[in-house]
Amino acid sequence: MLEDWSAVSVMWTVVLVAVTMVAVRCVRWLWAYLSFVRFFSSLPGEDDFSWVWGNLHKIRGQRTEGRLRYFAELTEKFPKFYLLWLGPFRVNVMLHHPDTLRALLKTAGPKPWSYGCLKPWLGEGLLTTRGPRWQRSRRLLTPAFHFNILKPYNTISNRACDLLLDKVEKHAMEKRSMEMFGNISLCTFDVILQCAMSYKDDVQTQGESHPYIQAVNELSELAADRIRNPLVHWDWAYALTAQGKKNRQLCDFVHGIAERIIAARLQTLEQDGPPKKRYLDFLDLLLTAKDENGKGLTPIEIRDEVDTFMFEGHDTTASAVSWTLHSLSEHPDIQNKVQQEVDRVLQGRDSDDIEWDDLSQLEYLTMVIKEGMRLHCPVPGVARHLTEPLTVEGVTLPVDTVCSISIQNLHHNPTVWPDPYVFNPDRFHPENAKGRDSYAFVPFSAGPRNCIGQHFAMNEQKVVLARLLRRFTFSPDPSVKVEKNMAAVMRTERGMKMFAVPRLPSL
Question: Residues 6 or more apart from 409 whose CB is under 8 A from it?
């Protein structure tokens, strides 16, 4: 009997200890969570909080224009920063003033959990990776964007523009409006295929039905939808949804295309060695890059960088060109001024090609492009995961806080940009830009993790816009309302139709 009683006592003691430990852990977790809520609730931000959606219930189901109005109201109310709850357990500190985002952009801090939504697609490419792997990849890829490498790409941009101009010409002759965003996207995709992988395809003649274009558009939309839905932030939960399964299928598709092109190039390099006649492309440099230890990129690393460059190298540029052209179509006086500059640069030539040395002479067009990227923000924002405390306006944000540099809010912040919704390229005249904070305009981000391909993107924008405006004058189609669609890149909700009228350059 004593032995039985002793065994029962031991059992109940173990149970009591276990229950106590669980209770202590629960109390600690609850205390930590309440401290978390108490601290972040003290920051500037929206008071209307849902215990399921956080603040996301204010924008879920809204079209982009409604979300942009919501963010604009918060920016006007909180001009330096505000807090956005992404559900009961996640927060995002939105920074949108040079005073608050400068310190963060100067760091090479890692990207937060939200970029994990892109990893099934882009893997550990430059956009999503962190730490030593990012540092190594950045060092290896930087030579790919030297001006000696970029210079031959100018010819590729001109030849791709020829096909775009032929399509515009056909619509102009028939006096029909043309959907410009999609066709410009096809042109920039044609450029990136050739610059990145020397791969020629009939992408511009296939139109938006090209399967890769469709896949990229769907993948970026799926990522944006997932970020706005706290119920599928966990990978296992997302994998069970129809969207998660669709995401997986699309990822397999784009990976397959990249892997086939890479395999074909490897076979060519093994048989013929490095190219002797053509320019070096991005894939050549990826396949031959070696670090200080003589180690190159693995096949998966190469695929990740190809997928990243294919996405960032065409989608963002297409957005920037399209939205700038849209603003020019609404401001004929500014459009005419750009055309006069292009005519002056090309005066007396037999060809309308924009040559390498012309790029630096297109000064007013450069101002126009910058204003287009300010007003329309091709990339609406970037984010960082704090690895050390950050003090913002007297508030010290703890480690592991997610901070977003909201480029959209920054570029429309009325305390930074007077009349922020007015298209005014003269903002970027050298005289007017004197004294402006260098962190007031960051379309390519800034600091160590800035866009590695920004010079490539600017050059391509100048070529495409100059070629279009040399041949045609554009005006909006009033029957189609142009609205923004904000995903990973700023697109359009229902297209961007314009009329084009052939012009005789004033030589």
Answer: 71, 72, 74, 75, 94, 96, 381
